[in-house]
Amino acid sequence: MTVSRDRRDDGPRVLCGVNGSTSSRSALAEAVRRASACGGRLTVVTAYDAAGYFWGALAALPGGDLLPVPDRAAVHEAEEATLRAFVDDVLSDPGLAALVAEGPVVIETRAVPGRPADVLVRESAEAAALVVGHGEDSETVASVAVGCLRRARCPVIVVPGVLTDRPAPPSTRSRRRP
User: What torsion, rounded to 10 degrees, do the Cα atoms 20, 26, 29, 31 define?
Assistant: First the structure.
């Protein structure tokens, strides 16, 4: 498989937000297809709750001991490693491996502290397109996708996690006014 993780400034940049879910796997696969088709770059971003790590450290253990406060650099490195492992796992799919083998896809991975929608909107400023997953609930679009649809600075592609043959529920609102 030919995948370059080097930074390159030519070609359109496709941005993909992932969180390890089934829908983000589908979104990453779609983002790889789009980056490959346009000869561009792919930036895969995951957002993490840095404050959550530190609040967790304040939780008291039995006996009254406190957990040690995590090292910020170690937390960031762990998130980056998890993201790289996720991307490698998705790219191990034979269909994607064959696609990537046809021509190099430049992939950059970044773990960024912050709220997912805020991070992706900020990152979308220099992207040609943003690809996100739909969320695990097939009845509604997840709040991250909605936040990106409303505020992103580039076109947003929302990919469902699992495609089904189930028909869409009928609309309860008329699109036309009488």
Answer: -90
